[in-house]
Batch of 2 targets.
Target 1
Amino acid sequence: MRFDALVVGGGPAGMMAAGTAARRGLSVCLLEKNAVLGRKLRITGKGRCNVTNDCGVREMIEATPTNGRFLYGAAVRFPPSGTMRFFEELGVPLKTERGKRVFPVSDRAADVAEAMVRFCRRAGVTFLRGEAERFLLENGRVAGVALRGGVRLLAENVAVCCGGASYPATGSTGDGYRLAREAGHTVKPLRPSLVPLAASGSDAGDCRDMMGLSLKNVAIRVLDGQAGKTVWEDFGEMLFTHFGLSGPLVLSASAHMPRMAPGRYRVSVDLKPALSPEKLDARLQRDLHANCNRDFSNSLSALLPRKMIPVAVRRSGIPPETKCNAVTRGMRLAFGRLLKAFDFTIEGFRPIEEAIVTSGGVSVDEVDPKTMQSRLIGGLYFAGEVLDVDAYTGGFNLQIAFCTGRLAGNSIKSGGE
């Protein structure tokens, strides 16, 4: 079988590249090893799919700490507003929520995936289930792909859009990195990004005791002990697990810990960000006075979630049976400081299989940002998570997939030009 272009990987970048190239009149084959296209896309955003972020190009690039400037050409040609218009025209109405996050009105990721399948089908893309084993190369150009099982697909152009190494159950098993290496490309070391964090020592035990507890409207700071500074802070929601910390705030925080080492980073949680230390102390005085004859450990239900109370009391060093009228000013002030800086030392990231995105990948120094074409092999393109580009949460990573896939699909030429 011979095509003008072969796209390896039926995720968001792959479907965008395939449909875009086919709409230009090229014969395009989309190769996907899963039975269902967009399998990972269908579970993103807890099944809701944060399609993009309703921001400008500059803001998008600023939200991409790993090689954001590489994206400028792709983002200008297909900015977040272009992605929103694309899906609206495909019959997927969108809505914008807090943080400019854009979701389908239906809150169904499957609607986004099916819209992309329709886009490819209407453009005339040929769908084929199979797994790429190696590139076919001739005279410094790509000539197609050999599949596992011996089938050879011939194509003058090949776009690699296999995704990263996170969520391997969805098919993202790092195939694109292997193919790139075999073609002579540099693959930057892989690490998880937007991933839960494992706490260390007694902090891990505290997290286990609070497992399942979700905190809303808290503020966190990430402190780099080696650099001696705060590297990130934000406000939102987090979750305690059997291993440590998770939830939207924590996933975002993980992207700011590139030099992870056991004990290097500390996550400091302000449980009462709306209260200044003085107002919090006044609140504590009122609560202690109202419960003057009760044990300290039994006086905190209006202040803290039930699961957190034993941990907070233990960390405070105040004996739990201490009567509230016996709590000294020093004890009270120290407890207030604890609530404003409820700290957890981080042992490391959870495994890459649990990450939302993969940091690392095909070196952008070897890819032309104006076309997404390899600088080493003619006719070879890369798009999406397989590239060494990753961003914060908020729809930015899907936007990267869409705009790089779009640029690759528009750059592919027929006739081997």
Target 2
Amino acid sequence: MLFYNLFLLSDNIIMRIPFIKYNHKKHLDELPKIQQRAADYHILYQPKDYRVALLDNIHKAERRIYIIALYLERDEAGRELLETLYQIKALRPHLDIKIFVDWHRAQRGRIGEGTSESNANYYYAMRQKYPNIDIPIYGVPINRREVLGVLHLKGSIIDDTVIYTGASINNVYLHKLENYRYDRYHVIVNKKLADSMINYVNDNFLPFTAVQRLDTPQHKTRKQLKPDIKVLRHHLMNTNYQYEANGNNESLTVAPIVGVGKNNPLNKIIHHLINITQEKATFCTPYFNLPNIVMRDIIRLLRKGRQVELIIGDKIANDFYIPENEPFNISGGLPYLYEINLRNFIERLQHFVDKGQLIIRLWQDGNQTYHLKGIWIDNEWLLITGNNVNPRAWRLDLENGILVHDPKQELQSQIQTELATIREKTTLITHFQQIQASQFYPKQVHKLIKRLSRIRVDRIIKRLL
């Protein structure tokens, strides 16, 4: 009887495997899609090119300019962008210009700076400089505190062009000065896609009192907005992204996706994407801190004989990295926590690395930083997103992405050039011992990590940052 039951169980598992595969593909096949002309899809490969394209499109705008980012910094690049917007609005007053940034992030300075140095104060100063021109800058609070969720929605919509990147607006993201933060930059001309993104922010942000203008002398406190923020978050977690779909599964399409909270649509798309892989899946993330479900999906692919490539920022290329000759603080421990994750991951799966199934690349270019996110599946599917594919993105932040389906491989030349450009500054890791062991970390770092591990705070930090 025991053997009979085991046979039935194994038979059920065997019978269910094709059904599970079909479900993943079925979900992607049934996802509403928007037709896309290959000639109207352009990938840029350098941050300076992104800055030029962004400003060039702004200068040419005839109807609307919407900038959506985590933050618009009060540095040279941020001032250049905002000054340009005011000048363009003065020339063409009919332009619909709106800016959306995270409410919390805008009201504090950089780490170590006071609130008087905040971006919000700069926005108000600009509004005073141009008193007859109205360019609203909205702060969107995704949760009561910044650590519990931020506006990680990305995209600039200028007329019918969507410029999608994980970058925010400041000197390093736009490579305005010497340093840069490397990201992805996709320029997509598509009216239906642009309309869908405009409609999303207008319909799901502006009607809610939690969304406040930041270019004002006074701002409500977090306590005053607490009930409004709760209403907004609940709405965002339960609303569907509505858009007019006209695409099919036989031609080039794009599909905008938004999600916040556990089991949101974007998380599900990532899960389904990984599980339809027949040959190779490539992932980019700056922080190696994968959610458990993604970790299991990757291991499942490897066990099926698929190839998986991970392109990760070296700890020196992490935006939290603090050089040893500079004052250390707790945030400087994060790159080392991520590196410990990576070393343990490679050690556990070393046999897949040895077989060439698991490819690990670390990106570094001097003291430049790395901010790439995204997934490439079988030369057919492409996800551009600001999602870091980590527990924070999976549960806390409002994230979005654009899923590209390219069944005829019309974009593959550009896509392969993008990947080749990313790989140029990477080191191939063939053994876990190439990753520095924690006992050789700087004394302050080693002491911090040991203390955090002892009281298990490191687990909480990995969920929040």
